[in-house]
């Protein structure tokens, strides 16, 4: 089975808090030399149409999202070739491949879902951004700075929450890589959110592998996802 999939990273702990925002220009993503304002869902993953096309916002001459007469955002469909082959518990593309262990299933979109978690514990992989105008180290540092700010917002708005944020730099299958691990716990010791975000550099582009357990669903302390990816993730 072959599907198209592409994903862009976003701050996973935005799942915890909702922040008000004023009108501002959307983030742009460079895909094969073209800039797009990609439509993302609540988890920061790009949204695909039923035909497997990528959704992007239409922008005006000043770079702001165009709105329709009813106030909704104007969108367009973008064809981005990125074949994904799904076989059993393995997802393979021209850029990467990963097989998850027993107890995980894979959707037609190439997303791994832990069994019996109602889709709340997932592993998602894909393209993050181009590195034409920024180094990978700068890209990672910018992301980590954003995570630090968001972590501070969580503790500010939820004083009884504890946010444990750990970073690591390493090589993934011979490529420069970096990870951020989040564990958010409430005052009663309940896991509110757990996630591991991994970025790596490949062909002057940044890719990501994201493991997330929303509301702690499916979290298993004995499963070291970062170590598993280091051992099993294949960069083509």
In words, what does this structure look like?
The chain has helices at residues 136-157, 225-232; strands spanning 2-4, 29-31, 34-36, 54-57, 75-78, 83-87, 90-93, 96-99, 104-106, 112-114, 121-130, 162-172, 175-185, 191-202, 205-214, 234-235. With 236 residues, it is mostly beta strands. It has a single domain (2-235), classed as 3-Layer(aba) Sandwich (Protein Transport Mog1p, Chain A). The chain has a seven-stranded antiparallel sheet, sandwiched between helices. Strands 1-6-7-8-16 form a five-stranded antiparallel sheet, with no helix packed on it. A two-stranded antiparallel sheet has the order 2-3. The relative contact order is 0.17.
């Amino acid at each position: 089975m072959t599907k198209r999939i592409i994903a862009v990273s976003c701050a996973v702990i935005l799942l915890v808090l909702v922040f008000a925002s004023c009108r501002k220009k959307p983030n742009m993503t460079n895909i094969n030399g073209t800039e797009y304002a990609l439509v993302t869902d609540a988890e920061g993953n790009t949204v695909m149409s039923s035909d497997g096309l990528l959704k992007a916002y239409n922008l005006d001459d000043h770079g702001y999202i165009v709105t329709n007469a009813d106030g909704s955002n104007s969108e367009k469909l973008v064809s981005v070739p990125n074949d994904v082959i799904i076989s059993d518990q393995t997802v393979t593309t021209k850029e990467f491949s990963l097989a998850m262990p027993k107890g995980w299933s894979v959707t037609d979109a190439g997303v791994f879902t832990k069994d019996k978690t109602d889709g709340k514990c997932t592993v998602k992989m894909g393209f993050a951004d181009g590195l034409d105008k920024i180094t990978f180290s700068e890209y990672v540092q910018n992301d980590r700075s954003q995570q630090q700010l968001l972590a501070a917002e969580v503790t500010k708005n939820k004083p009884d929450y504890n946010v444990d944020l750990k970073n690591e730099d390493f090589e993934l299958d011979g490529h420069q890589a970096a990870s951020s691990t989040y564990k958010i716990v409430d005052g009663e010791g309940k896991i509110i959110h757990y996630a591991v975000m991994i970025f790596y550099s490949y062909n002057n582009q940044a890719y990501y592998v994201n493991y997330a357990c929303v509301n702690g669903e499916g979290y298993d302390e004995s499963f070291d996802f970062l170590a598993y990816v280091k051992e099993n993730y294949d960069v083509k």
